[in-house]
Design brief:
Order of helices and strands: HEHEEEEEEEEEE
Number of strands: 11
Number of helices: 2
Oligomer: single chain
Strand content: over 45%
Structural class: mainly beta
Largest sheet: 8 strands, antiparallel, barrel
Length: about 210
Protein backbone atom coordinates (compact mmCIF):
# COMPACT_ATOMS: atom_id res chain seq x y z
CA UNK A 1 0.00 0.00 0.00
CA UNK A 2 2.82 2.40 0.89
CA UNK A 3 4.49 1.60 -2.43
CA UNK A 4 1.22 2.28 -4.28
CA UNK A 5 0.81 5.65 -2.52
CA UNK A 6 4.39 6.58 -3.36
CA UNK A 7 3.86 5.70 -7.04
CA UNK A 8 0.58 7.67 -7.09
CA UNK A 9 2.26 10.74 -5.57
CA UNK A 10 5.12 10.47 -8.05
CA UNK A 11 2.64 10.29 -10.92
CA UNK A 12 0.72 13.33 -9.68
CA UNK A 13 3.94 15.30 -9.26
CA UNK A 14 5.00 14.34 -12.79
CA UNK A 15 1.65 15.45 -14.23
CA UNK A 16 1.73 18.69 -12.25
CA UNK A 17 5.24 19.44 -13.42
CA UNK A 18 4.31 18.71 -17.04
CA UNK A 19 1.27 21.01 -16.84
CA UNK A 20 3.33 23.77 -15.25
CA UNK A 21 5.89 23.59 -18.03
CA UNK A 22 3.22 23.49 -20.74
CA UNK A 23 1.98 27.03 -20.21
CA UNK A 24 2.43 30.43 -21.83
CA UNK A 25 5.96 31.86 -21.64
CA UNK A 26 7.72 35.03 -22.77
CA UNK A 27 10.05 35.02 -25.77
CA UNK A 28 10.11 34.51 -29.52
CA UNK A 29 7.34 32.54 -31.24
CA UNK A 30 6.83 31.20 -34.77
CA UNK A 31 3.55 29.94 -36.20
CA UNK A 32 2.18 28.21 -39.28
CA UNK A 33 -1.48 27.55 -40.10
CA UNK A 34 -3.87 26.47 -42.85
CA UNK A 35 -6.73 28.95 -43.45
CA UNK A 36 -10.37 28.16 -44.16
CA UNK A 37 -11.67 31.04 -46.30
CA UNK A 38 -15.12 32.41 -45.48
CA UNK A 39 -17.83 34.49 -47.16
CA UNK A 40 -16.58 36.91 -49.84
CA UNK A 41 -12.97 35.69 -49.67
CA UNK A 42 -14.11 32.18 -50.58
CA UNK A 43 -16.35 33.59 -53.32
CA UNK A 44 -13.57 35.66 -54.89
CA UNK A 45 -10.86 32.98 -54.77
CA UNK A 46 -13.27 30.13 -55.62
CA UNK A 47 -11.62 28.13 -52.82
CA UNK A 48 -12.20 27.44 -49.15
CA UNK A 49 -9.46 25.24 -47.66
CA UNK A 50 -6.36 26.52 -49.43
CA UNK A 51 -3.47 28.84 -48.61
CA UNK A 52 -0.93 29.39 -45.86
CA UNK A 53 -0.53 31.70 -42.85
CA UNK A 54 2.96 32.27 -41.38
CA UNK A 55 4.01 34.55 -38.55
CA UNK A 56 6.78 35.41 -36.13
CA UNK A 57 6.22 37.26 -32.85
CA UNK A 58 7.68 38.28 -29.53
CA UNK A 59 5.68 37.76 -26.34
CA UNK A 60 6.10 39.66 -23.08
CA UNK A 61 4.23 39.34 -19.76
CA UNK A 62 2.06 42.09 -18.32
CA UNK A 63 3.46 43.07 -14.92
CA UNK A 64 2.01 41.26 -11.90
CA UNK A 65 -0.36 39.07 -13.97
CA UNK A 66 -0.49 35.89 -16.04
CA UNK A 67 -1.52 37.89 -19.13
CA UNK A 68 0.85 38.36 -22.07
CA UNK A 69 1.18 40.83 -24.94
CA UNK A 70 2.34 39.41 -28.29
CA UNK A 71 3.59 41.64 -31.14
CA UNK A 72 4.16 39.99 -34.50
CA UNK A 73 4.63 40.07 -38.26
CA UNK A 74 2.71 37.71 -40.53
CA UNK A 75 2.18 36.67 -44.11
CA UNK A 76 -1.15 35.30 -45.38
CA UNK A 77 -1.53 33.80 -48.87
CA UNK A 78 -4.85 32.85 -50.51
CA UNK A 79 -4.21 31.51 -54.04
CA UNK A 80 -7.20 31.66 -56.35
CA UNK A 81 -8.71 29.03 -58.58
CA UNK A 82 -10.21 29.69 -62.00
CA UNK A 83 -13.97 30.12 -62.14
CA UNK A 84 -15.96 30.20 -65.38
CA UNK A 85 -19.32 31.91 -65.77
CA UNK A 86 -20.68 32.05 -69.31
CA UNK A 87 -17.86 33.26 -71.55
CA UNK A 88 -15.83 34.76 -68.68
CA UNK A 89 -13.10 32.91 -66.80
CA UNK A 90 -11.52 34.68 -63.86
CA UNK A 91 -8.90 33.96 -61.21
CA UNK A 92 -8.39 36.16 -58.15
CA UNK A 93 -5.63 35.67 -55.56
CA UNK A 94 -4.97 37.54 -52.33
CA UNK A 95 -1.89 38.01 -50.17
CA UNK A 96 -1.30 40.22 -47.15
CA UNK A 97 1.51 41.20 -44.84
CA UNK A 98 0.31 41.79 -41.28
CA UNK A 99 1.44 43.64 -38.20
CA UNK A 100 -0.38 42.18 -35.20
CA UNK A 101 -0.87 42.97 -31.51
CA UNK A 102 -2.53 40.28 -29.40
CA UNK A 103 -3.46 39.86 -25.75
CA UNK A 104 -2.96 36.31 -24.44
CA UNK A 105 -5.01 35.35 -21.38
CA UNK A 106 -4.37 31.88 -19.89
CA UNK A 107 -7.51 30.14 -18.62
CA UNK A 108 -6.83 29.47 -14.94
CA UNK A 109 -4.05 26.88 -14.54
CA UNK A 110 -5.06 24.89 -17.62
CA UNK A 111 -3.14 24.67 -20.89
CA UNK A 112 -5.78 26.75 -22.69
CA UNK A 113 -5.42 30.45 -23.41
CA UNK A 114 -7.69 33.05 -24.99
CA UNK A 115 -6.29 35.22 -27.80
CA UNK A 116 -7.68 38.59 -28.92
CA UNK A 117 -6.05 41.34 -30.91
CA UNK A 118 -5.90 43.72 -33.87
CA UNK A 119 -4.02 43.77 -37.16
CA UNK A 120 -2.82 46.22 -39.81
CA UNK A 121 -2.76 44.70 -43.31
CA UNK A 122 -0.92 45.44 -46.52
CA UNK A 123 -3.06 43.67 -49.15
CA UNK A 124 -2.05 42.52 -52.64
CA UNK A 125 -4.83 41.46 -55.02
CA UNK A 126 -3.98 39.84 -58.35
CA UNK A 127 -6.74 39.21 -60.90
CA UNK A 128 -6.82 37.71 -64.38
CA UNK A 129 -9.76 37.53 -66.73
CA UNK A 130 -10.40 35.76 -70.03
CA UNK A 131 -13.41 36.20 -72.29
CA UNK A 132 -13.84 33.56 -74.97
CA UNK A 133 -16.00 36.00 -76.97
CA UNK A 134 -13.56 38.93 -76.66
CA UNK A 135 -9.90 38.10 -77.45
CA UNK A 136 -8.94 41.69 -76.53
CA UNK A 137 -9.75 40.88 -72.90
CA UNK A 138 -7.39 37.91 -72.84
CA UNK A 139 -4.95 38.19 -69.95
CA UNK A 140 -6.45 41.36 -68.51
CA UNK A 141 -5.02 41.74 -65.04
CA UNK A 142 -4.97 44.17 -62.18
CA UNK A 143 -3.34 44.61 -58.80
CA UNK A 144 -3.90 46.79 -55.77
CA UNK A 145 -1.50 47.54 -52.91
CA UNK A 146 -2.57 49.21 -49.69
CA UNK A 147 0.27 49.97 -47.28
CA UNK A 148 -1.01 49.29 -43.76
CA UNK A 149 -4.21 51.10 -44.66
CA UNK A 150 -6.48 48.17 -43.87
CA UNK A 151 -7.25 47.03 -40.36
CA UNK A 152 -8.77 43.96 -38.76
CA UNK A 153 -9.40 42.05 -35.55
CA UNK A 154 -8.61 38.48 -34.49
CA UNK A 155 -9.72 36.15 -31.74
CA UNK A 156 -9.20 32.51 -30.90
CA UNK A 157 -7.78 29.83 -28.62
CA UNK A 158 -4.42 28.18 -28.02
CA UNK A 159 -3.71 24.85 -26.36
CA UNK A 160 -0.21 24.29 -24.98
CA UNK A 161 0.71 20.71 -25.92
CA UNK A 162 4.24 20.96 -24.52
CA UNK A 163 6.55 23.65 -23.18
CA UNK A 164 7.55 24.70 -26.71
CA UNK A 165 4.58 23.62 -28.84
CA UNK A 166 0.98 24.85 -28.98
CA UNK A 167 -2.05 24.17 -31.16
CA UNK A 168 -3.85 27.29 -32.39
CA UNK A 169 -7.27 28.19 -33.78
CA UNK A 170 -7.84 31.80 -34.83
CA UNK A 171 -10.62 33.75 -36.54
CA UNK A 172 -9.54 36.81 -38.51
CA UNK A 173 -11.69 39.56 -39.99
CA UNK A 174 -10.05 42.30 -42.07
CA UNK A 175 -11.16 45.06 -44.41
CA UNK A 176 -10.41 45.69 -48.09
CA UNK A 177 -13.68 47.01 -49.49
CA UNK A 178 -13.98 48.01 -53.13
CA UNK A 179 -10.19 48.02 -53.61
CA UNK A 180 -10.52 44.37 -54.70
CA UNK A 181 -12.21 45.41 -57.96
CA UNK A 182 -10.56 44.64 -61.29
CA UNK A 183 -10.58 47.51 -63.76
CA UNK A 184 -9.96 47.83 -67.49
CA UNK A 185 -9.67 51.27 -68.99
CA UNK A 186 -11.12 52.80 -65.83
CA UNK A 187 -14.23 50.59 -65.94
CA UNK A 188 -15.11 47.84 -63.48
CA UNK A 189 -14.99 44.49 -65.22
CA UNK A 190 -16.75 42.54 -62.47
CA UNK A 191 -19.05 45.38 -61.53
CA UNK A 192 -18.93 47.16 -58.17
CA UNK A 193 -17.74 44.44 -55.83
CA UNK A 194 -16.29 44.84 -52.38
CA UNK A 195 -14.70 42.32 -50.06
CA UNK A 196 -13.78 42.22 -46.39
CA UNK A 197 -11.64 39.06 -46.11
CA UNK A 198 -12.33 36.73 -43.21
CA UNK A 199 -11.02 33.27 -42.43
CA UNK A 200 -10.43 30.67 -39.71
CA UNK A 201 -6.89 29.35 -39.42
CA UNK A 202 -5.77 26.22 -37.58
CA UNK A 203 -2.12 25.45 -36.98
CA UNK A 204 0.80 25.23 -34.57
CA UNK A 205 3.03 27.68 -32.71
CA UNK A 206 6.60 27.00 -31.60
CA UNK A 207 8.33 28.79 -28.74
CA UNK A 208 12.09 29.35 -28.92
Amino acid sequence: MAQFRAMTMAGLLLLTGSAAKAQQTAGWKAGAAIPYSMDSLSSFTNRTLMGLCLDGAYQVPVADSTTFIRLGLGLNAFPGQEKTSGTLTRKVSFMSEQVTADVIVPISTSRWALVAGISANNWHVNSTLRDSSDPAMEGTSGAVKKVFGKFGFRTGLEYQVASRLALTALFQQTELGSDARLRKGGDDIYGYQGINPSWIQVGIRYSF
